[in-house]
# Entry
Amino acid sequence: GLANPPPPRHVLLEKPLAASGADGDAIVAAAEAAASRGVLLGLNIGMRWNEAQVRMRQLALEERAVGRLSGGSLELHFAAWPRPWQRVPWCAGRAEGGPLREVGTHFLFGLQEIFGARCVRRVRATVTYPADRRLCESGAEGELELDGLVLALRVTTDGSATEESGGDDRYELRLDGEGGRSLLLEDFTSLRLEQPLPRGSRTMVERAPYGRRESVESVAGAVRKMRGERDGGSGLPAPRITAREAREAQAVLDAILALGRRVGR
# Structure
């Protein structure tokens, strides 16, 4: 071994936690063992601190702004995949890339933040893949079943569902309530309350910061607190995201990718 080994380093991981369930489980075990030795890990998923997502939970569950929830949808529509700024081989590959891993993980974790850990009880989906077995999914359609609530899942990557947005990608989480009222989380950081006329649509949060800074600060603050420093703690309203929490979101992702595969032309 090294005569003077470097000190252990705290880690901020990108999402998803891992490319496979086995790797995810191994990371959870390693992270929890490291934590017992004072080495911390956090996940870079800003949904925990994203104002639009936090407000969606408050309006849906605490204030009951749309009444009793009756359904909803998670829709991810891309003009092309990979996205123009992300055209690297791994992102297009089936082993590690794809829109569900890269973008879907944000919203699957967001569902946990709204409805609680392991909120998705069952997944039914048809995932479409190109004939080239090296390439990631090109689309998906199905349902996410929560306690007393079913969300439709739709993913496209051929631009067919981006016309109404002028060709821009669309990322939408919708929760439907009573009387034609809905909450719509758009493009990660904007939230609308949709109601029938004459009230119509109201913007509740518009283009708020996603939560990247808070993801970093959640780990840095936890390290300072552990060291007993005077400015310990992050001052954030919620703690860092642990490997185990990220693994729970990955479990839903893994279930979607494992179901109903068919090969596209």
